């Protein structure tokens, strides 16, 4: 090989390594700056001392004495709630935003993941902060967790607010079963390109450049030497979602509930396991939203046109107006 071409190859390799290094994020996102101060709540679990990250944002205006807790989705952390926090705080709400154990800046633990246990950890966090009663806004997986929280602790839940929650179907009734180890192998294949493609096709009806930051944060840990741990935890929480449905318990909810539904959402957990024909039968939120509203006593349904899985990012003006009206 001629020296010139060898030099070009070496330069290209060096630039790729540099780019990768710059894109690398730790699996607990230490190098991702959240919009508000992050604190940590100690969580002992299965012989391990874990840390649960959270933001506790005081009202920016005269306090109305009310608190709203925000539960993130599976592929996110507290960082994607910034616009919601700003509006709530400006209206006098205290806002508490946890990163669940296994997500965001919190510990990536090898434990048995359970919505029941997560709900209890969140109650303990709120108790430690002196929060007696709160509205819970849960997005995606956070909607499943928020539902479990409201079922376990109705006395602490002022309102249940569900933004395109997953779990409106029982996935194990139509998805082929795969165990955690099999899902782990799938999670290990994730990279920036596959993550962006998934976000483009699953989360939004029209891609905007501002969404690239979500991809950067989600893909950053794939460059980390600790990525296998991150992928294993992702597989464990996939199993939690698959094996712990809440869909059969909506009728048992005893708190005021509002569903915020982007009608173009077609999210199915484990969608790639299905044929295109089977995919077309499920994840139809324009139908699931209405069906779920009939299952929950006195539930209110608010739908957003031309909107996918994350209304608070895709149609923020409409979403935030609806949220404030229902608080």
UniProtKB/TrEMBL annotation:
GO terms for cellular component: membrane. PANTHER family: HYDROLASE, PUTATIVE (AFU_ORTHOLOGUE AFUA_2G14860)-RELATED, MONOACYLGLYCEROL LIPASE. Residues 67-314 form the AB hydrolase-1 domain. GO terms for molecular function: hydrolase activity. Keywords: Hydrolase, Signal. Pfam families: Abhydrolase_1 (PF00561). The keyword Signal applies. Residues 1-21 form the signal peptide. InterPro entries: AB_hydrolase_1, AB_hydrolase_fold, AB_hydrolase_sf, Epox_hydrolase-like. SUPFAM superfamilies: alpha/beta-Hydrolases. This is Alpha/beta hydrolase. Coiled coil: none annotated. Gene3D superfamilies: alpha/beta hydrolase.
């Amino acid at each position: 090989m001629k020296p010139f071409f060898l030099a070009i190859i070496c330069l290209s390799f060096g630039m790729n390594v540099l780019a990768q290094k710059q894109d690398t994020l730790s699996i607990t996102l230490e190098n991702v700056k959240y919009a508000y101060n992050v604190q940590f709540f100690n969580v002992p679990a299965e012989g391990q001392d874990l840390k649960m990250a959270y933001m506790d944002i005081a009202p920016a205006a005269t306090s109305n004495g009310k608190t709203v807790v925000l539960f993130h989705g599976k592929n996110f952390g507290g960082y994607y709630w910034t616009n919601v926090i700003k509006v709530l705080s400006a209206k006098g709400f205290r806002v508490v935003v946890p990163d669940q154990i296994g997500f965001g800046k919190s510990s990536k633990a090898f434990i048995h993941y359970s919505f029941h246990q997560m709900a209890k950890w969140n109650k303990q966090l709120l108790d430690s902060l002196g929060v007696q009663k709160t509205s819970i806004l849960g997005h995606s997986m956070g909607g499943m967790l928020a539902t479990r929280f409201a079922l376990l602790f109705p006395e602490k839940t002022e309102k249940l607010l569900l933004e395109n929650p997953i779990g409106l179907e029982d996935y194990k009734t139509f998805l082929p079963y795969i165990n955690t180890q099999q899902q782990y192998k799938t999670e290990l294949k994730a990279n920036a390109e596959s993550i962006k493609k998934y976000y483009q096709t699953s989360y939004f009806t029209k891609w905007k450049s501002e969404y690239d930051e979500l991809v950067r944060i989600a893909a950053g840990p794939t460059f980390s030497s600790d990525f296998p741990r991150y992928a294993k935890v992702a597989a464990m929480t996939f199993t939690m979602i698959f094996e712990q449905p809440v869909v059969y318990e909506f009728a048992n909810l005893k708190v005021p509930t509002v569903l915020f539904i982007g009608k173009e959402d077609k999210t199915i957990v484990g969608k790639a396991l299905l044929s295109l024909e089977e995919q077309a039968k499920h994840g139809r939120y324009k139908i699931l939203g209405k069906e779920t509203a009939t299952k929950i006593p006195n539930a209110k349904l608010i739908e957003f046109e031309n909107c996918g899985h994350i209304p608070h990012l895709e149609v923020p003006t409409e979403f935030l107006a609806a949220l404030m009206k229902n608080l």
